[in-house]
Amino acid sequence: MIIMIAAAAENNALGKNNELVWHLPNDFKRFKNLTSGHHIIMGRKTFESFPKPLPNRTHVVITRQENYAPEGCIVVNSMEKAIEICPKEENTYIIGGGEIYDLGIPFSDKIELTLVHHTFEADAFFPIINKEQWEIINSEFQQKDEKHLFDFTYQTYIRK
């Protein structure tokens, strides 16, 4: 199954200057729990935003740059090639950024979205989810607290 996983604001904002514009520790834990042990597909800029490769995951990086070869990654130049090299019998996660989500949505079977209940200035955005193609099968509201400055909702969509 191909699963897009993201945290996006109510205006679909993902981040600015290759960084998230919020900090939600519980969402990071959820991301880690869901993606650990799986292939994760991302763009070069998303990969480069990590201080080091994420443990216990196979990194598949999509880039147009020739000769790009970070250690411990599989590098491809298209979403089709990225999906092709991932095991068909396992979950594969598309983790961003904005351009990669746009490329990945036609291939995706499921979306794990953390909707941050706020709007932000951003330069990267999650694609608009077409409600005629996708349906919510789970929704869990999380209230802001001392570790989370914003309310947010975990939403799981499947393709109709």
Automatic annotation (TrEMBL):
<dbReference type="InterPro" id="IPR001796">
    <property type="entry name" value="DHFR_dom"/>
</dbReference>
<keyword id="KW-0560">Oxidoreductase</keyword>
<dbReference type="GO" id="GO:0046655">
    <property type="term" value="P:folic acid metabolic process"/>
</dbReference>
<dbReference type="Pfam" id="PF00186">
    <property type="entry name" value="DHFR_1"/>
</dbReference>
<keyword id="KW-0554">One-carbon metabolism</keyword>
<dbReference type="GO" id="GO:0070401">
    <property type="term" value="F:NADP+ binding"/>
</dbReference>
<dbReference type="GO" id="GO:0046452">
    <property type="term" value="P:dihydrofolate metabolic process"/>
</dbReference>
<dbReference type="GO" id="GO:0004146">
    <property type="term" value="F:dihydrofolate reductase activity"/>
</dbReference>
<keyword id="KW-0521">NADP</keyword>
<dbReference type="GO" id="GO:0006730">
    <property type="term" value="P:one-carbon metabolic process"/>
</dbReference>
<comment type="pathway">
    <text>Cofactor biosynthesis; tetrahydrofolate biosynthesis; 5,6,7,8-tetrahydrofolate from 7,8-dihydrofolate: step 1/1.</text>
</comment>
<dbReference type="InterPro" id="IPR024072">
    <property type="entry name" value="DHFR-like_dom_sf"/>
</dbReference>
<dbReference type="GO" id="GO:0005829">
    <property type="term" value="C:cytosol"/>
</dbReference>
<comment type="similarity">
    <text>Belongs to the dihydrofolate reductase family.</text>
</comment>
<comment type="function">
    <text>Key enzyme in folate metabolism. Catalyzes an essential reaction for de novo glycine and purine synthesis, and for DNA precursor synthesis.</text>
</comment>
<dbReference type="InterPro" id="IPR012259">
    <property type="entry name" value="DHFR"/>
</dbReference>
<protein>
    <recommendedName>
        <fullName>Dihydrofolate reductase</fullName>
        <ecNumber>1.5.1.3</ecNumber>
    </recommendedName>
</protein>
<feature type="domain" description="DHFR">
    <location>
        <begin position="1"/>
        <end position="159"/>
    </location>
</feature>
<dbReference type="GO" id="GO:0046654">
    <property type="term" value="P:tetrahydrofolate biosynthetic process"/>
</dbReference>
